[in-house]
Design goal:
Distance between the termini: 18 Å
Number of helices: 5
Helix content: 40-55%
Number of strands: 3
Number of domains: 1
Structural class: mainly alpha
Order of helices and strands: HEHEHHEH
Largest sheet: 3 strands, mixed
Radius of gyration: 18 Å
Shape: globular
CATH topology: Nucleotidyltransferase, domain 5
CATH superfamily: ATPase, nucleotide binding domain
Strand content: 5-15%
Strand order of the largest sheet: 1-2-3
């Protein structure tokens, strides 16, 4: 929701004790925080949902689903074949363009698994997200 084509990623607070796993986690946490910012913007505009569907390659990871469900405070559903989300969506559009019946093409996928928000994880992430937002504001003028 920042609408800033110059925004950049930043590792903040690294010490000699941090390693590759910490940096990998930080990247995923930052992506999750950016999604949370977008979700909060949608909610501020009146949007809401009781559940969201997780698609794409990340849908393979139960850990990722749990992190996002906790950040967004919403149930995340993985449909069967969710990891092929983008490609499957394109194929469905092509099928429709070739005369496929909407009821056949656009059926709701079977549910493979559901990730529920973890209140303890959400509480642990809240101050980190607040710091993420403060850092973005503090560094905004440095993005070129």
């Amino acid at each position: 929701p920042h609408n800033n084509a110059n925004a950049q990623g930043v590792f903040f607070g690294l010490t000699h004790e941090h390693g590759a796993a910490d940096m990998g986690y930080a990247v995923l946490e930052g992506v999750g925080f950016a999604l949370l910012d977008g979700w909060q913007a949608l909610q501020a505009g009146g949007g809401n949902a009781e559940q969201l569907w997780l698609v794409g390659g990340g849908a393979r990871s139960e850990w990722w689903a749990r992190l996002l469900a906790s950040l967004l405070n919403v149930r995340l559903v993985n449909g069967v074949g969710a990891e092929a989300g983008g490609a499957l969506g394109a194929a469905r559009l092509a099928w429709l363009a070739c005369g496929g019946a909407v009821d056949d093409v656009c059926r709701t996928p079977d549910i493979a698994r559901v990730a529920e928000p973890d209140p303890a994880l959400a509480a642990a992430l809240q101050p980190r997200h607040a710091r993420f937002k403060r850092l973005y504001e503090a560094l905004r003028s440095e993005f070129v």
